[in-house]
Write a structure and sequence with these properties.
The protein is of the alpha/beta class. The protein folds into two domains: 272 residues, Glycogen Phosphorylase B (Rossmann fold, 3-Layer(aba) Sandwich), CATH 3.40.50; 186 residues, Rossmann fold. It is built from 17 helices and 20 strands. The strands form four sheets. A nine-stranded mixed β-sheet has the order 3-4-5-2-1-8-9-13-14, with helices on both faces. Helix 10 crosses helix 15. It is globular, with a radius of gyration of 23 Å. The relative contact order is 0.10. It binds adenosine-5'-diphosphate (ADP) and alpha-D-glucopyranose (GLC). The site of adenosine-5'-diphosphate has 19 residues, from helix 1, strand 15, strand 16, helix 12 and helix 13. Alpha-D-glucopyranose binds next to helix 1.
Amino acid sequence: MKILIAASEAFPFAKTGGLADVVGALSQVFSRAEGVEVALFLPKYRNIGGGAFSLKAVGGNFLIPMSGRVETATMSQVQWGRVSVYFIENRKYFDRPGMYRANFGDYEDNDERFIFFSRAVLEGAKFIGFKPDVIHCHDWQTGLVSAYLKTIYRIDSFFSKTATVFTINNIAYQGMFPKETLLKAGFPWADFTPDKLEFYGGMNFMKAGLVFSDILTTVSPTYAGEIQFKPDFGKGLEGVLRSRSVDLFGVLNGIDEEIWDPATDAFLERGYDIKSFQRGKAAAKIALQRELGFDENKDMLLAGVVSRLEQQKGLDILCKAMPEYLGKIQFAVLGAGDPGLSEAFANLAKAEPKKIFFETGFHDSLAHRIYAASDIFIMPSRFEPCGLSQMIAMRYGALPVVTRTGGLKDTVNYNGEPKDSNGFAINNADEGELKSVLGHIISLYGWRENWDIMVRNAMKTDFSWTRSAQEYLKLFNIAYQKKQL
Ligand code: ADP
Ligand code: GLC
């Protein structure tokens, strides 16, 4: 089976969040399955290339029609294990400081940038002669790929057997643009109807993916239900999703167990596993406390946060709750996003530098050290399609403190009994609920035996991709069969 994966980010090439981890890991896992060939298509952002990866130019170029004019696409390639990674190049669109935005404002031409990318995925596949059985697209940035295949490319024999699978990693980001975007994308007004591309008078790239793909997936079973049936969770697309209910599947994400392995983690001074976690985590904690300027004390409860700072993540309630726990919990917060929330965390850290640390920006190595050093990992999300951070935290023996929503509900077990629990959960992203669970955590931390039982449960939970990758491959087959009808 030939699988083309199209996405706007993939680790280790470009990353702003969990989407990149998922796309990177899935490409690798699929490529190791028998009889599978994987081509991964990504935009060539400014910072891609160099380092461990030297890109090779794919000679020549091809043209992409863009509302009455054409833009040139070139490609470069790198072999990453068994995955061939193709980068779509156009300096005007992708040679910029950010991937989607500069500072905090989205690029105004994001519609054009991802129209160009989506169409270049199809033209690029033809250009290199890679005839996919399945195209696996992720999120709004690639929503138009399926729409093109079912409309403008419908009679293109190159793709006559190609099926599409569209994965919703987060329905809160939809790629909403004014109706004129339809023309930039080259669709006729006849397609601007509520059952196709129209959405509240504008054009919605996520909706295009939902309407035109053969099979839809999202990243946890609970989120698959929430976005169809729970008020506000579908963000206006619940009707479209319900109309495709039989084709929508929740497939739980995994984590890359090689990248996220406390035993071999090169960012840690000393590795540890489930047998040696007590000493290993104590050493990681002392090292981080020293690095951050905290009092060095292996018995002080350390709470970690590694997150985008957005409404979704509920960290505003942590910010409000934190002052009450100073002296009982040290907080190490790494987060980037909302400027107001960053400022609030920064002010707390400035006032209490020995108890609260805040760093903004994206720092992979610090993230690894926080996961390893923390006793608890705080993630009180208002909604969470899957969430990888809580799984990473568990693998590193940091007990997650989460809300019972989406993938958090599907991965964290908490019923008050340490022997059945691998973390802590509250029902809502609510300050009172968070405070009450933190109070409970502080008292439980004194009972090391119980605590350690939970840490062992967390560390041995299976978050590998094996089972989910099989589910995807089954769905790819179903999509392919469906396309041949
Ligand atoms: P989301 O995709 O919604 O941001 P996930 O939990 O699925 O949330 O994935 C987040 C990923 O991004 C994890 O790998 C996490 O470690 C990483 N991450 C988030 N923020 C930062 C940051 N500021 N610095 C480094 N890594 C980060
Ligand atoms: C999104 C979601 C997150 C999920 C990730 C990967 O960014 O917010 O919950 O884990 O995608 O699927």
